[in-house]
Amino acid sequence: MDMMNMDMGGNDKKKDSTSDQDYKIQGMSCASCAKAITKSVKKVPGVKKVKVNVSTDSMNVQMDSNVQDDAILNAVKSAGYKAQKIGNNVTFSKKPSKYLIEQIVKFSISLILTIPLWVGMGLMLGNVDTTGAKVICGPTFQIVLASIILFGVGYSFFVDVWAGIKTLTTNMYFLIVLGALAAYGLSIYNGVQDGWKYVPMNEGGHELYFETIGTIVTLALLGNIFENLAKVNTTNSLQKISDLIPSKAILVLNGKTQEIDTISLKLNDIVQVKPGDKVPTDGIITSGNGYVNESLVSGESKPIKKAIGDKIVAGSVVDQGSMQFKVTKVASDNTVSQILTLVQQAQGGDLKIGKLADKISAWFVPIVIFAALMTFMGWSIHDHAVSQRAIINAISALIAACPCALGLATPTAIMVGTGKASEIGIVFKNGNQLENLANLRAVVFDKTGTLTQGKMTLDQIQTLSKTYSDEEIKEYLKAVESNSQHPLATSLVASLPNVKTLKTTNFTNYTSKGVSAVVNNKTIKVGNVNWLTTDKDIVNKVNALQQEGKSVFMMTINDEPVAIVSLSDKIKPDAKQLITALNDLGIRTVMVTGDNLLTANYVAKQLGIKEVHADIPVSQKADFVASLQNGINKKGKPVHNVVAMVGDGINDTVALTKADIGITMSTSLDVAIASSDIILVNNDLMDIYRSVVVAKRTYRKIIGNIFWAFIYNIIMIPLAATGVLRPEFSAIAMALSSVSVVLNSLLLSVKNIKMPKKKHPDKLDSETLKPASYYINQDMKNMDMSNMKMDSKKSKQDNK
Prior knowledge:
Blueprint: E1 18-26, H1 31-42, E2 47-53, E3 58-64, H2 69-78, E4 82-85, H3 98-125, H4 131-136, H5 139-153, H6 155-166, H7 172-193, H8 210-234, H9 236-242, E5 248-253, E6 256-261, E7 270-273, E8 283-288, E9 290-293, H10 295-298, E10 304-306, E11 311-312, E12 317-320, E13 323-327, H11 335-347, H12 352-383, H13 388-400, H14 403-423, E14 426-428, H15 433-438, E15 440-445, H16 447-451, E16 452-463, H17 470-481, H18 487-494, E17 505-510, E18 514-519, E19 522-527, H19 529-532, H20 536-546, E20 551-557, E21 560-571, H21 575-584, E22 588-592, H22 597-607, E23 611-613, H23 618-629, E24 630-632, E25 638-640, E26 642-646, H24 653-658, E27 661-665, H25 670-674, E28 678-680, H26 686-721, H27 727-746, E29 775-777, H28 785-791, H29 793-797
Parallel strand pairs: 15-22, 15-26, 22-23, 26-27, 27-28
Antiparallel strand pairs: 1-3, 1-4, 2-3, 5-6, 5-7, 7-13, 8-11, 8-13, 9-10, 9-12, 14-28, 16-21, 17-18, 18-19, 19-20, 20-21, 23-29, 24-25
Helix pairs in contact: 1-2, 3-5, 3-8, 5-7, 5-8, 6-7, 7-8, 7-13, 8-27, 9-14, 11-14, 12-13, 12-14, 12-26, 13-26, 13-27, 14-26, 14-27, 26-27
């Protein structure tokens, strides 16, 4: 697998005057946090674009190259969060982060202090009147514990709220702080009414709600812990990729070896690897030879022989032999690092449905505050006074609401989906493509190199003359074709390695016809049949071979036909299974190729592709993709059909860019990879089907997350507002809602992807998709063969 030339960069072209930097953010909990950071950083002069990802606790900033990192870090700090610049040597630690440890410590302190408050609530509701109860239930004891919890352990909540106020944004902590302060104030008021001492409720005492404060803060911290543990879990896929690169490398300098950090390697350094070593970075072998296993990187299980001049890929393992290689890509730019970068970028994608959820989250807090006010006013009117019930129910409504569940619904699912896809060799450049792929309607395939191996090999040589032996014919054939630059000639010569090469003179190339040369005083011509003969029997034999999808030409010696030569491009072994799987999913499959009609139709028939568009110029491939995208539904209204393009060459780049989803193999040309959205690292065509399944599963998770987040709020807020839920139980429900969304995303699986049950293929919402001049029906039996021969004349002439 040639992964060395991979240029996995996106399609966005950045000017030299701009830079792109990633940062790790600490303390985010929901979409509102991301919004506050984005607004603050965008105010920094020179910042072009800011993208904050809650699920990965990361931020990407595109800015002028003269913008200082301190300006970005201070902007994040002013929003109430901490940021750390991510360098090129990023690793993914298996140890818990400092922030997670902080949250665990705070949670432990808050829980220990909340337990006595819960005990006090139980004694208070039970009207227990003992010396111990008077201490535990007393306002002084409870306010001390509650104050430590709220203003000490929960201090960061106030910082987040204040930062939100400064940036005119609201977040989950706004509701938590507002609810906790309301409970705090009401408890002080009730304590004053009771003379600041414990009075049993059956004796007219008033209930204190300090335990509500402890419960709110404790469970909010617990929710943060679960969310961060989930983030740690979802970085496992990134960790596995990062682990492919060894931390140390053996540098060869002046004939001596020394161990250095892999990140210290420079271009043109010489590195030594021995059996069992992981290759630290990409390079070209300068001495030695051996066998290298690239299964960790490419999925290819067989060891690959490597010799001087061969490329060696980072992350592969040396099975046999010792080698030295020259570094062609530093650690931050090698194959594995590029894959890692793409996976991280994809995890930060924004789906349309996710943007809708974020917009709702942004308005959620003001709506909840309004609902709490309505609850307070409603109960006050009902009780004909500003009652404690009105205040408590309003507090419950504030606490029960959870915008975090909505904010986490999309990013957590994207992070898990793209991360797990990378584990099976499917690299999404952008998480947005998950939504497109989940709604895929059609896949357009290039033929050569995509559905076929892309390597022509000698199929057979049919001898037409008894004057010359088979060996003589091969020698003359190889002698002439060795002088030709044509790809078919190159493939033919490569197929005859054991045939000696004779000397030639007077080599001549005849455009669109063939070539000729003099060998051993004989004039040898090799070219298309129409140029070399009019014999009907020979023409019929050539036509029969062409209908089998083969490239055919003739050879003459002194104008005597002596052989018919055919070459073929083998169909990839997993191509038919892929087409069957996509058709069974109801996805339309189409072949678009510049190859001749007969060859294209033969390949399509073998694979089960129902639509073939042959002889299409490069310039018209993108137009064809556009014709598939622009549909009209049954009501006559225009609709957009999601179309994917699968290709591997320069001639596919425009179509790959035009398609909603461009898909390439990792062995494709750099320009094709740069134009694509999804890269199949294992070069397995069935990964196209697997990527569709992963996208559909991820999309279902997102829909499920958003649905349950809505249902939760629709049910819980009314229950809290009507007094069914006490504030402390509202806090429990609030914490569980966020945790449930994260856990649901973590349940996403990419294993056990089976072939689909057969469905009736969906029709695209367009009846004007098929350019009549190119469309060839799959069913050869129903075609007028005479017309087909007329259409194929040009194909025969261009076959050589």
